[in-house]
Design goal:
alpha+beta; 122 residues; 2 helices; four-stranded antiparallel beta sheet; 4 strands
């Protein structure tokens, strides 16, 4: 389960009338150097869609990071998964399951995650 320390917990958001309800906007950052398009499509169908059945968006990107072991900047194709979720423990756990599965399946050191409070309506 994804547990944020109190200092990192998103504040409760009061949404103005007509602006939807409080939600979390999560972005997950996947390095795609080890995953072909076919591999990625299977991962999305097998792991992401069942974990996030209310919907999500995937954006293509070009990622860069500093390799702590070599001190060199690495670059690779990336995918950014964007999803608006209710702020509930089971929804946060779903994000962590997706991250853990990708790290395991594609032997990745990490899958980045950012979360921000937003007002949303679908």
């Amino acid at each position: 389960m994804l547990a944020l320390p109190a200092a990192c917990a998103p504040p409760q958001l009061a949404c103005p009338a007509g602006a939807g309800r409080p939600m979390l906007l999560a972005q997950l950052y996947f390095g795609r150097g080890a995953a072909s398009d076919a591999d990625w499509a299977r991962f999305v169908d097998r792991i992401v869609a069942p974990a996030l059945p209310d919907g999500f968006t995937v954006l293509d990107g070009d990622g860069a990071w500093l390799n702590p072991q070599t001190g060199m900047t690495g670059r690779e194709r990336s995918s950014v998964l964007v999803v608006a979720i209710e702020d509930r423990p089971d929804r946060r756990a779903a994000l962590e399951r997706v991250r853990a599965a990708y790290r395991q399946d594609f032997h990745q050191q990490s899958v980045g995650l950012t979360i921000a409070p937003v007002c949303g309506d679908f």
